[in-house]
Specification:
By secondary structure, the protein is mostly helical. The protein contains 13 helices and no strands. It starts with 5 loop residues before the first helix and ends in a 9-residue tail after the last helix. The relative contact order is 0.15. The C terminus is likely disordered.
Amino acid sequence: MARFSVTEAATAGFGIVGRRPLVVAGWAIALVAALVLPALLCIAMLGPRFVEIMQLAAQQKGQAGDPEALDRMMRLNSGLTGFNMLYWLWSTFVKAVFCGAAFRAVLTPEKAAWAYLRIGSREMWLALVMLVEQVLLFIAVFVMALVIAVVAAIAAVGAGDHQTGGAIAVAGVGGAIAVVLVIWVALRLSMAGPMSFADNQFRLFESWDLTKGQTWRLLGVALLVILFLVVMEMLLAGLIGGVVMAGGGSLAALQGSANLDALFRRPPIEILRALWPWLTSLGVVVALFGAVAQAVFYAPWAFIHRALARPRETAWL
């Protein structure tokens, strides 16, 4: 049975960062162009709607709910549904592009043109795999939650005087089982992305055979990757705190709910003008963090695929 080193796999992303630091810088720029700039454009276009929602929410604080204001907020939020759907599809495609870049950096590190970034059929298959996995996860969680709710209700009825305790116990055990089941299935399907990328075809359940007997090692890799990302997020929070503290007097004017309300009542362009130095500084830090996170999160699975898959022709890469 093919094997792989858990620590080598989990640290594969750091290998990319160490060998190709300029690639990380290129990914940071691409992240800004692909996600931040479209988001800022949408804010500029939909800014008045967001501001109105914030104003209506602020007016409801400490007051009895105004039916007309609540109805207005509902209509404004419903109008954003289409935007949210489009942004979900776009962000999934962007993730697929960076995922493909990380896979390419691990499988063929010599193909470093354009910081390993490509837009082609392989990235499209990755995007499709991601979308299908997200939809399947939503369906699975919904079904399991429904089953747990029904079983908990039955247990509550049968528990007599201890209905609440019985329902909570059943829901807790059922929830724990559901979480373990979701994690297990996710690990068994974790090679769907690398397989789809390597074969240039849609692969999902084919991952089941490739990961047979590897669940514990895959879990070890996943836990280490999560640990790395948590530590990175803590460092990011420290850097952001430093930037905010460096803002000192400029940001002090925003303290207090009255000042914040006054800020959000201004036109979106004026808000950006007031905050752009700090948003720019934070954007640089967050973009670099995001680029490193892409490598740390995606590279291990390409490393594992290379170790588990049979030797294959890789000239296409």
